[in-house]
Amino acid sequence: MIDRTITFRLIGAGIMVLSAAVILPLILDGERPPELDIQVQVSEPPAFPVIKIAPVQPVKSLPVASTEKSAQDITLIPTPKAAKDVEPNSVVSKVTLPTPTVSAPKKTVEAKAPAKTTERWVVQIATFKSKDNATRLVDKLKAAKYDAYSITTNSLYKVYVGPEFKRDTSEKVRDEIKSKFKLAGFVTKFSVN
Hints:
By secondary structure, the chain is of the alpha+beta class. Helix content is 28%, strand content 14%. It is built from 3 helices and 4 strands. Strands 2-3-1-4 form a 4-stranded antiparallel beta sheet. It starts with a helix and ends with a strand.
């Protein structure tokens, strides 16, 4: 037989479990926070039009429009003479042009000679990693009435003075800057880019 104390303990444990099953949901549920009472409305998905795509047809089955024109379909418009070709005192009369003939277009390739530019020279004064240093030197040179500017190349800032049309003039500017600012630059060809 089971001891009486064990029986009372089992009955007490059963009552505790039943009361916990009834009371705990009431305690834990409590009142619902107002943030959870929001109703979310989901709109209808947009209606996209259904597009039917025709299957690909072979080129041979497509209708071919005639793109060839005969010589009678082509008309040429005569160009008037330029005003510089006409003499000032001459009278321009009505000219009847002969019927134009159509010939195959001629392909002409003309090689254009590159436009010759005169060489210009600049003095490269210094190269800096810092943009601030380059800007300060440019300002200092401009204050001394030199045409100074800076160009960024490969994350370096190069300071130039010029350009001049004669190399001799650039060499004189280089010597002046060397004596005034103690900066030894060198003369190089000016490049636009």
